[in-house]
Design a protein that fits this description.
44% strand
Protein backbone atom coordinates (compact mmCIF):
# COMPACT_ATOMS: atom_id res chain seq x y z
CA UNK A 1 0.00 0.00 0.00
CA UNK A 2 1.31 3.41 -0.97
CA UNK A 3 1.80 5.77 1.92
CA UNK A 4 0.11 3.38 4.33
CA UNK A 5 0.08 4.20 8.03
CA UNK A 6 -0.83 1.16 10.12
CA UNK A 7 -1.02 1.78 13.85
CA UNK A 8 -2.39 -0.64 16.39
CA UNK A 9 -3.82 0.97 19.50
CA UNK A 10 -5.78 -0.30 22.47
CA UNK A 11 -9.47 0.55 22.43
CA UNK A 12 -9.18 2.09 25.85
CA UNK A 13 -6.52 4.50 24.57
CA UNK A 14 -8.89 5.75 21.88
CA UNK A 15 -11.87 5.95 24.18
CA UNK A 16 -13.69 3.45 21.94
CA UNK A 17 -14.04 0.70 24.47
CA UNK A 18 -17.78 1.04 25.16
CA UNK A 19 -19.48 -2.33 25.09
CA UNK A 20 -16.33 -4.39 25.66
CA UNK A 21 -15.69 -3.52 29.30
CA UNK A 22 -15.24 -6.56 31.47
CA UNK A 23 -14.31 -8.84 28.61
CA UNK A 24 -10.83 -9.20 30.07
CA UNK A 25 -9.10 -8.39 26.76
CA UNK A 26 -8.07 -5.29 24.88
CA UNK A 27 -9.28 -5.37 21.33
CA UNK A 28 -7.02 -3.64 18.86
CA UNK A 29 -7.78 -0.89 16.39
CA UNK A 30 -6.38 -0.55 12.91
CA UNK A 31 -5.84 3.16 12.23
CA UNK A 32 -5.64 4.38 8.65
CA UNK A 33 -4.72 7.86 7.46
CA UNK A 34 -4.98 9.03 3.85
CA UNK A 35 -3.74 6.22 1.61
CA UNK A 36 -4.22 4.08 -1.48
CA UNK A 37 -4.81 0.34 -1.25
CA UNK A 38 -2.87 -1.13 -4.18
CA UNK A 39 -3.31 -4.81 -3.34
CA UNK A 40 -6.22 -6.92 -2.10
CA UNK A 41 -6.91 -6.04 1.52
CA UNK A 42 -9.10 -7.47 4.29
CA UNK A 43 -10.44 -5.51 7.26
CA UNK A 44 -11.72 -7.03 10.48
CA UNK A 45 -12.21 -5.95 14.07
CA UNK A 46 -12.26 -2.15 14.51
CA UNK A 47 -10.90 0.17 11.81
CA UNK A 48 -10.44 3.88 12.52
CA UNK A 49 -10.20 6.08 9.42
CA UNK A 50 -8.95 9.65 9.59
CA UNK A 51 -8.53 10.35 5.86
CA UNK A 52 -9.55 9.20 2.40
CA UNK A 53 -8.91 5.54 1.60
CA UNK A 54 -8.68 4.85 -2.13
CA UNK A 55 -9.24 1.31 -3.41
CA UNK A 56 -7.26 1.26 -6.66
CA UNK A 57 -8.56 -0.29 -9.90
CA UNK A 58 -8.19 -4.08 -9.88
CA UNK A 59 -8.03 -4.19 -6.05
CA UNK A 60 -10.68 -5.76 -3.79
CA UNK A 61 -11.33 -4.49 -0.27
CA UNK A 62 -13.05 -7.19 1.79
CA UNK A 63 -14.73 -6.24 5.08
CA UNK A 64 -15.47 -9.23 7.28
CA UNK A 65 -18.61 -9.80 9.37
CA UNK A 66 -18.55 -8.11 12.77
CA UNK A 67 -16.16 -5.36 11.66
CA UNK A 68 -16.75 -1.76 12.79
CA UNK A 69 -15.35 1.01 10.57
CA UNK A 70 -15.26 4.43 12.27
CA UNK A 71 -14.52 7.70 10.51
CA UNK A 72 -12.97 10.73 12.19
CA UNK A 73 -14.56 14.06 11.32
CA UNK A 74 -12.17 16.06 9.10
CA UNK A 75 -12.45 19.53 7.58
CA UNK A 76 -12.98 19.83 3.82
CA UNK A 77 -9.61 21.65 3.59
CA UNK A 78 -7.80 18.94 5.49
CA UNK A 79 -4.67 17.43 3.94
CA UNK A 80 -6.32 14.07 4.65
CA UNK A 81 -8.64 14.61 1.67
CA UNK A 82 -7.07 12.80 -1.24
CA UNK A 83 -8.87 14.82 -3.92
CA UNK A 84 -10.78 18.09 -4.15
CA UNK A 85 -14.28 18.15 -2.78
CA UNK A 86 -16.10 18.79 -6.05
CA UNK A 87 -18.21 15.96 -7.48
CA UNK A 88 -17.72 13.05 -7.25
CA UNK A 89 -15.78 13.49 -3.99
CA UNK A 90 -16.92 14.47 -0.51
CA UNK A 91 -15.45 16.81 2.10
CA UNK A 92 -15.36 14.15 4.81
CA UNK A 93 -13.17 11.07 4.96
CA UNK A 94 -14.47 8.46 2.54
CA UNK A 95 -13.74 5.08 1.02
CA UNK A 96 -13.19 5.74 -2.69
CA UNK A 97 -13.73 2.49 -4.58
CA UNK A 98 -12.29 2.34 -8.08
CA UNK A 99 -11.66 -1.38 -7.65
CA UNK A 100 -14.26 -3.32 -5.67
CA UNK A 101 -15.61 -3.54 -2.12
CA UNK A 102 -17.14 -6.69 -0.64
CA UNK A 103 -18.70 -5.80 2.72
CA UNK A 104 -20.79 -8.86 3.38
CA UNK A 105 -21.94 -9.20 6.96
CA UNK A 106 -24.50 -11.68 8.23
CA UNK A 107 -27.82 -11.35 10.02
CA UNK A 108 -26.08 -12.28 13.28
CA UNK A 109 -22.82 -10.40 12.67
CA UNK A 110 -23.37 -7.11 10.91
CA UNK A 111 -20.71 -4.72 9.63
CA UNK A 112 -20.95 -1.12 10.91
CA UNK A 113 -19.78 2.01 9.10
CA UNK A 114 -20.19 5.02 11.39
CA UNK A 115 -18.77 8.19 12.90
CA UNK A 116 -15.95 8.02 15.43
CA UNK A 117 -17.18 11.19 17.13
CA UNK A 118 -18.89 11.30 20.52
CA UNK A 119 -21.28 13.99 19.20
CA UNK A 120 -21.94 12.08 15.97
CA UNK A 121 -24.10 13.79 13.34
CA UNK A 122 -25.02 13.37 9.66
CA UNK A 123 -22.13 14.06 7.23
CA UNK A 124 -19.39 13.30 9.77
CA UNK A 125 -17.85 11.25 6.95
CA UNK A 126 -18.29 11.18 3.19
CA UNK A 127 -19.46 7.93 1.64
CA UNK A 128 -18.67 4.47 0.46
CA UNK A 129 -18.02 6.09 -2.90
CA UNK A 130 -18.14 3.72 -5.88
CA UNK A 131 -16.47 5.31 -8.92
CA UNK A 132 -17.01 3.32 -12.11
CA UNK A 133 -16.55 0.06 -10.21
CA UNK A 134 -18.51 -3.16 -10.60
CA UNK A 135 -19.15 -6.27 -8.55
CA UNK A 136 -19.59 -4.33 -5.29
CA UNK A 137 -21.54 -5.94 -2.45
CA UNK A 138 -22.89 -4.09 0.61
CA UNK A 139 -24.88 -6.59 2.64
CA UNK A 140 -25.98 -6.84 6.28
CA UNK A 141 -24.31 -3.55 7.17
CA UNK A 142 -25.34 -0.61 9.35
CA UNK A 143 -24.39 2.69 7.72
CA UNK A 144 -24.68 5.72 9.99
CA UNK A 145 -23.80 9.45 10.03
CA UNK A 146 -22.47 9.68 6.44
CA UNK A 147 -22.98 12.45 3.91
CA UNK A 148 -24.17 9.76 1.46
CA UNK A 149 -24.06 6.24 2.88
CA UNK A 150 -23.38 4.54 -0.46
CA UNK A 151 -22.83 6.60 -3.60
CA UNK A 152 -22.47 5.22 -7.12
CA UNK A 153 -20.91 7.23 -9.94
CA UNK A 154 -21.19 5.05 -13.04
CA UNK A 155 -20.92 2.02 -10.75
CA UNK A 156 -22.76 -1.24 -10.08
CA UNK A 157 -23.56 -2.69 -6.66
CA UNK A 158 -25.83 -5.10 -4.80
CA UNK A 159 -27.06 -3.26 -1.69
CA UNK A 160 -29.17 -5.66 0.33
CA UNK A 161 -30.32 -6.25 3.93
CA UNK A 162 -28.74 -3.08 5.36
CA UNK A 163 -29.78 -0.34 7.79
CA UNK A 164 -29.26 3.31 6.82
CA UNK A 165 -29.87 5.95 9.50
CA UNK A 166 -28.75 9.50 10.35
CA UNK A 167 -27.19 10.02 6.91
CA UNK A 168 -27.62 12.91 4.51
CA UNK A 169 -28.87 10.41 1.92
CA UNK A 170 -28.85 6.66 2.43
CA UNK A 171 -28.05 5.58 -1.14
CA UNK A 172 -27.49 7.78 -4.19
CA UNK A 173 -26.28 7.11 -7.72
CA UNK A 174 -25.83 8.93 -11.00
CA UNK A 175 -24.19 8.91 -14.41
CA UNK A 176 -21.07 11.03 -14.81
CA UNK A 177 -21.88 13.89 -17.17
CA UNK A 178 -19.47 16.56 -16.03
CA UNK A 179 -15.96 15.19 -16.54
CA UNK A 180 -15.20 13.57 -19.94
CA UNK A 181 -11.75 12.60 -18.61
CA UNK A 182 -13.26 10.27 -15.97
CA UNK A 183 -12.97 6.56 -16.93
CA UNK A 184 -16.64 6.11 -15.98
CA UNK A 185 -17.85 9.10 -18.02
CA UNK A 186 -21.25 8.48 -19.65
CA UNK A 187 -21.80 5.20 -17.78
CA UNK A 188 -25.07 4.66 -15.93
CA UNK A 189 -24.93 3.38 -12.39
CA UNK A 190 -26.75 0.08 -11.91
CA UNK A 191 -28.00 -0.56 -8.38
CA UNK A 192 -29.89 -3.43 -6.77
CA UNK A 193 -31.40 -2.03 -3.56
CA UNK A 194 -33.46 -4.65 -1.72
CA UNK A 195 -34.53 -5.58 1.81
CA UNK A 196 -32.98 -2.48 3.41
CA UNK A 197 -34.21 -0.07 6.06
CA UNK A 198 -33.91 3.66 5.38
CA UNK A 199 -35.07 5.38 8.55
CA UNK A 200 -34.41 8.88 9.87
CA UNK A 201 -32.06 10.12 7.15
CA UNK A 202 -32.43 13.47 5.42
CA UNK A 203 -33.24 11.50 2.26
CA UNK A 204 -33.68 7.79 1.65
CA UNK A 205 -32.71 6.91 -1.93
CA UNK A 206 -31.80 9.28 -4.77
CA UNK A 207 -30.84 8.36 -8.32
CA UNK A 208 -30.22 10.26 -11.54
CA UNK A 209 -29.71 8.90 -15.05
CA UNK A 210 -29.24 5.43 -13.59
CA UNK A 211 -30.64 1.93 -13.51
CA UNK A 212 -32.12 0.77 -10.23
CA UNK A 213 -34.19 -2.03 -8.80
CA UNK A 214 -35.70 -0.88 -5.50
CA UNK A 215 -37.70 -3.64 -3.82
CA UNK A 216 -38.75 -4.81 -0.36
CA UNK A 217 -37.34 -1.80 1.52
CA UNK A 218 -38.68 0.00 4.59
CA UNK A 219 -38.42 3.73 3.84
CA UNK A 220 -39.77 5.88 6.64
CA UNK A 221 -39.28 9.06 8.68
CA UNK A 222 -36.78 10.60 6.27
CA UNK A 223 -36.73 14.37 6.63
CA UNK A 224 -37.13 15.44 3.00
CA UNK A 225 -37.95 12.43 0.80
CA UNK A 226 -38.16 8.68 0.71
CA UNK A 227 -37.17 8.17 -2.96
CA UNK A 228 -36.06 10.90 -5.41
CA UNK A 229 -35.71 9.79 -9.06
CA UNK A 230 -34.31 12.36 -11.52
CA UNK A 231 -33.99 12.53 -15.30
CA UNK A 232 -33.67 9.46 -17.53
CA UNK A 233 -33.79 6.72 -14.95
CA UNK A 234 -34.65 3.09 -15.61
CA UNK A 235 -36.06 2.22 -12.22
CA UNK A 236 -38.43 -0.40 -10.90
CA UNK A 237 -39.83 0.58 -7.50
CA UNK A 238 -42.02 -2.16 -6.03
CA UNK A 239 -42.94 -3.99 -2.84
CA UNK A 240 -41.68 -1.21 -0.56
CA UNK A 241 -43.15 0.35 2.58
CA UNK A 242 -42.87 4.14 2.14
CA UNK A 243 -44.37 6.13 4.99
CA UNK A 244 -43.87 9.11 7.36
CA UNK A 245 -41.41 10.88 5.06
CA UNK A 246 -41.94 14.53 4.08
CA UNK A 247 -42.49 13.40 0.49
CA UNK A 248 -42.83 9.69 -0.13
CA UNK A 249 -41.65 9.74 -3.76
CA UNK A 250 -40.53 13.01 -5.36
CA UNK A 251 -39.85 13.13 -9.11
CA UNK A 252 -37.77 15.60 -11.12
CA UNK A 253 -37.89 15.18 -14.91
CA UNK A 254 -37.99 11.45 -14.28
CA UNK A 255 -38.50 9.17 -17.27
CA UNK A 256 -38.68 5.40 -17.27
CA UNK A 257 -39.71 5.03 -13.62
CA UNK A 258 -42.29 2.39 -12.69
CA UNK A 259 -43.84 2.66 -9.23
CA UNK A 260 -46.10 -0.33 -8.66
CA UNK A 261 -47.19 -2.61 -5.82
CA UNK A 262 -45.94 -0.49 -2.90
CA UNK A 263 -47.47 0.78 0.32
CA UNK A 264 -47.17 4.58 0.02
CA UNK A 265 -49.14 6.26 2.78
CA UNK A 266 -49.14 8.84 5.58
CA UNK A 267 -46.26 10.87 4.19
CA UNK A 268 -46.56 14.40 5.58
CA UNK A 269 -46.54 16.57 2.42
CA UNK A 270 -47.39 14.15 -0.38
CA UNK A 271 -47.28 10.44 -0.98
CA UNK A 272 -46.15 11.11 -4.57
CA UNK A 273 -45.23 14.55 -5.91
CA UNK A 274 -43.74 15.87 -9.13
CA UNK A 275 -41.29 18.78 -9.10
CA UNK A 276 -41.76 21.92 -11.19
CA UNK A 277 -39.86 20.50 -14.18
CA UNK A 278 -41.60 17.12 -14.24
CA UNK A 279 -43.67 17.21 -17.42
CA UNK A 280 -43.59 13.44 -18.01
CA UNK A 281 -46.40 11.16 -16.87
CA UNK A 282 -45.55 8.68 -14.15
CA UNK A 283 -46.73 5.07 -13.96
CA UNK A 284 -47.84 4.60 -10.34
CA UNK A 285 -50.65 2.10 -10.82
CA UNK A 286 -51.46 -0.61 -8.34
CA UNK A 287 -50.16 0.91 -5.09
CA UNK A 288 -51.79 1.04 -1.66
CA UNK A 289 -52.21 4.60 -0.41
CA UNK A 290 -53.54 3.84 3.06
CA UNK A 291 -57.20 4.11 2.05
CA UNK A 292 -59.58 3.22 -0.76
CA UNK A 293 -61.18 6.67 -0.58
CA UNK A 294 -60.40 8.32 -3.93
CA UNK A 295 -60.58 11.90 -2.57
CA UNK A 296 -58.18 11.17 0.26
CA UNK A 297 -55.77 9.44 -2.11
CA UNK A 298 -55.88 12.42 -4.43
CA UNK A 299 -55.14 14.90 -1.63
CA UNK A 300 -51.64 13.47 -1.21
CA UNK A 301 -50.74 13.28 -4.92
CA UNK A 302 -49.27 16.45 -6.51
CA UNK A 303 -49.29 16.45 -10.32
CA UNK A 304 -51.05 17.90 -13.38
CA UNK A 305 -54.33 18.38 -11.57
CA UNK A 306 -52.55 20.88 -9.30
CA UNK A 307 -50.44 22.52 -12.02
CA UNK A 308 -51.40 22.16 -15.68
CA UNK A 309 -47.75 22.35 -16.81
CA UNK A 310 -46.84 19.14 -15.01
CA UNK A 311 -47.14 15.48 -15.88
CA UNK A 312 -49.81 13.17 -14.49
CA UNK A 313 -49.21 10.59 -11.79
CA UNK A 314 -51.28 7.66 -13.06
CA UNK A 315 -52.56 5.80 -10.00
CA UNK A 316 -55.67 4.03 -11.28
CA UNK A 317 -56.39 1.44 -10.26
CA UNK A 318 -55.00 1.76 -6.70
CA UNK A 319 -54.88 -1.33 -4.52
CA UNK A 320 -57.67 -1.88 -2.03
CA UNK A 321 -55.47 -3.46 0.63
CA UNK A 322 -51.83 -3.24 1.72
CA UNK A 323 -49.00 -5.04 0.01
CA UNK A 324 -47.17 -7.75 1.95
CA UNK A 325 -43.88 -6.02 1.32
CA UNK A 326 -41.35 -7.99 3.42
Amino acid sequence: MKGATWTFLALATLGLGAGVAGCGKQQQVLELNKQTLDKDTTWQGTVLISGDVDVAPGVTLTVLPGTTVKFKRIDEKSDQNMYGVDSPYYPGAEIIVRGRIIARGTADSTIVFTSAEIDARPADWGAINLLGSEGNVIEYCKILFAYNGVHGHGAAAAINHNEFAKNGIGVSCKKEEESPSAPWYGKMSDMEITYNQFVNNKGGIGFRNSKAVVKHNLIRENKFFGIFPKDETQAVISDNEITANKKGIYLFQAQGVKINHNNIYDNTDYNIAVAEAQDYDVDARGNWFGTDNAEKIDELIFDKKDDSTMGTVIIDPPLKEPVKWQ
